[in-house]
Design goal:
4 helices; Rossmann fold; about 35% strand; nucleotide-binding; alpha/beta; tRNA threonylcarbamoyladenosine biosynthesis protein TsaE; magnesium; nine-stranded mixed sheet; single chain
Length: about 180
């Protein structure tokens, strides 16, 4: 079990270290960027799936979850775990070639993979965020560039020094997304 402590302080940046088995959790409240950040170090796939599921429990219609990470780092695995909260029957695969897949859940889930998108104008053309009642999971979100939503949840997955583990950084931009981080 991961313990998360959140404190409101007047300083620009505050860090807390919590040691829980092999997990080092760093929480940074950054009032300059208006984002709440959580860093989780050295987690295995099972713990990463639990984090993803707990995030999904707190998502809302119109939520935008942007995922960043190298090839094979676990972005699609993270999306699979979040989607399981909404339906255990849906088979989630990477939408690399389709670019966007829509899952028939309540609310609907739009799962996009922007890896093959060469230009943000192409993203405008497909009208990615057209359904304000859907939840959006966007892999390779760095390709959004100027289309990046102001309010969003960012999940950055990186390989740990020990390849069996990942380091995860979660950033909440906007009050609704900060509330999600307060609940996980």
């Amino acid at each position: 079990m991961t313990l998360v402590l959140l404190y409101k302080v007047k300083k620009t940046c505050t860090k807390f270290q919590i040691f829980n088995d092999t997990i080092k959790l760093f929480i940074v409240m950054n009032f300059v960027m208006e984002a709440l950040k959580i860093f989780i170090r050295k987690i295995d796939e099972k713990k990463m799936n639990n984090i993803a599921y707990n995030i999904a429990k707190n998502l809302f219609e119109g939520a935008k979850v942007l995922l960043y990470g190298d090839l094979g780092s676990g972005k699609t695995t993270f999306v699979k775990s979040m989607t399981k909260f909404f339906s255990k029957d849906i088979r989630v695969t990477s939408p690399t070639f389709a670019v966007v897949k829509v899952y028939d859940t309540i609310p609907k889930i739009h799962h996009a993979d922007l890896y093959r998108i060469a230009d943000p104008y192409e993203i405008e053309y497909i009208d990615l965020f057209h359904d304000e009642n859907a939840i959006y999971f966007i892999e390779w979100a760095e390709y959004l560039e100027y289309l990046t939503p102001k309010e969003r949840l960012e999940i950055r997955i990186k390989y740990n020094k020990d390849i069996r583990y990942r380091d995860v950084e979660i950033n909440g931009f906007g009050q609704k997304y900060e509330n999600i981080l307060n609940k996980i």
